[in-house]
Task: structure prediction
Amino acid sequence: MNFSSKLIEEAVNAFSALPGIGKKSALRHVLHILQMEENNVTEITSAINRLKSEIQFCKVCHNISDQDTCTICLNQSRDKSIICVVENIRDLMAIENTQHFNGVYHVLGGLISPMEGIGPESLKIDTLLKRIDDQEVNEIIMALSSTIEGDTTLFYISRQIDQDKVKISSIARGIAFGGELEYTDDLTLAKSITNRLPYKNSNL
Result:
């Protein structure tokens, strides 16, 4: 792709670094920005700068937050005895969008994948186990993607928890094997949470 301006080229390269945006889409965004009022462009750049410099991660569940504890963990109407364990923040948002879960969350920050050099120590598993020890937790819902990595992570974590004291559930397999939670429609995801299965009696 040829550019008549080095500034345009640099802006297109920057935009195309974002996932799902190719060079042509990036160019459309860049040209649109050129047509915008300067104060609107300033709002965008200011929001991005603030996002990068001020965003925090919840000290309890590792969700993104504007303060050290996220609004979900601070919400007194949430059932703190049920923790839904997810791979990443996108999965947390997907489950929240279903409006069918009133417990709290724990974001692992990934899945165990020996092929990629990701072991249990790379994930937020220790803080999950500490929450279970420190709080009255009755159930852990393992809402992980139906992949080998997801099942490996589920199995590892289940071995660290006394299942005589804490119930472990896995989401119902309405989600195809290899599917990722964030791309699952709200209805299927809601049913998977509602119809969760005891892990010890599942086919995993």
